[in-house]
Amino acid sequence: MARVLIGSPVLCDENASYVRILRDAGLEVVFPPEIRLLTESDLLRCLPGVHATIAGPEPYTARVIESAKELCVIARSGVGYDSVDVEAATRHGVAVTITPGTNHDAVAEHAFALLLALAKDVVRQHQWTVQGGWSRQPTVPVRGQTLGIVGLGRIGKAMALRGLAFGMKVLATEKAPDWDFIRQHGIELVSLEELLRRSDFVSLHTPFTPETRYLIRAETIRLMKPTAFLINTARGGLVCERDLLEALEKGQIRGAGLDVFEKEPPGDNPLFRLPNVIVSPHLAGADTQSLRDMAEMAARTVVGLLRGEWFEDGRIVNPEVRPRLRRPA
What we know:
Blueprint: E1 3-6, H1 17-24, E2 28-30, H2 40-46, E3 52-55, H3 62-67, E4 73-76, H4 86-91, E5 95-97, H5 104-119, H6 122-130, E6 146-150, H7 154-165, E7 169-173, H8 179-185, E8 188-189, H9 192-198, E9 201-204, H10 218-221, E10 229-232, H11 241-250, E11 255-258, E12 277-279, H12 288-306
Parallel strand pairs: 1-2, 1-3, 3-4, 4-5, 6-7, 6-9, 7-8, 9-10, 10-11, 11-12
Helix pairs in contact: 1-12, 5-7
C-alpha cells in the first residue's frame, strides 16, 4: 500500500475530506509525530517509506529529495513552490504539483482587506478608541483611487474585479496579458514604472523568480507617490524590506500591508514597529474554503499520478519528469 504524508500542519485532520479521498483510493495516510511546520531534519525522518506528500511550506531541499528513495510526488497544497527544489525533484523522478485555481479568491479577499484596513486606518482607529480616545481622524477614500496590480494572473484578476466593484480605476502590468479580460473590464495595461508613478495602491501578485527578486526596492519605491500604499500577498522576496523600512520611516510612501516576508517566520522585524504597517502571517490564501479546495485537488492529483494518470492542465510544475517518474514498488 502506497503511503502519503500530510506535511502541512493546517491539514493534519484525520476526518478531512482530502484524507478520505486518499483512503478511499486505497492509500495509507500518515501524519508527522508533531503537528507543526516541518524542518529539513523533520522531513529526513518522516519521508522514508513515503510515496507522496500533501505539502505545505516545509523545505523539500535537494538533500531531502535525494534521501527520500521512494518518493514519487510532492503535491503542494497551494500555487507557490519556492520551498521545493524542482531541479532535484526532476533529477530523481519526483513530480512536483500545485493546485491552480483553488485559492485566488481567498488571496484577493485578503489583499483587499489589507487595502481597506490601510485606507481606513482600521488598526490605529481601533486602538485609539478602546484606549479611551475619540480622535475621529479623516481616512483615505477608496472610490475614485487608482489601484495598480503587478501581475494579472488568476489572483491579479480577482483583485482587479474587487477594485472595480469599489469604484477604483485599475492599472496593471503583465507579461502575458489576457486581452479579453483586459478589454472586458476596462483595465489599462502599463509599464511597471508608469504603474508605480500613477497608483494610489500598489498590490503585488507576480511570481517570485530571479527576475522579480526585489522588484520593490529603493529605486522603484522612489517612483511611487508619497501618499501611496504598498500591499504584498505574493512572496516576501519581491520586496527589499530594508529599503521599504527606510521609505516608510522617511514618508516616501504612506504605508504597507504585508502578508509575506523575506524570512518566514519573520522574527523581530523592524517593520512591525511602524504605525503605518499592517501585517499577517502568510495566510492570505488559507481561508477554510480554499484550504479544503487546495487539499482536495492535491489529494486527487496524488491519487491520479500514483495510478499512472497524467495531467495536462498546468498543475504539474515539472512535466519533463514524466519519462522518468517514479512508481510505487
